[in-house]
Design goal:
Elements (H helix, E strand, L loop, with lengths): L2 H7 L4 E6 L2 E7 L5 E7 L2 H10 L6
Amino acid sequence: MNIQSLQEIVKEGVVISEQNGVIYADFVEDNGDEFRLTQSANIEDVQDYLKDHGLIAE
């Protein structure tokens, strides 16, 4: 799994990014407000968090 493929399967509003080897999952509201959901150096941990919290699109 890479960042682009993870971004393709998350629900609308969830933004996946990477900076300095850390992967971030944020929720961005329509008004532009951002809320950090999780972060990890391991993309599988980010994916597991999103799946556990119902943020992976079915």
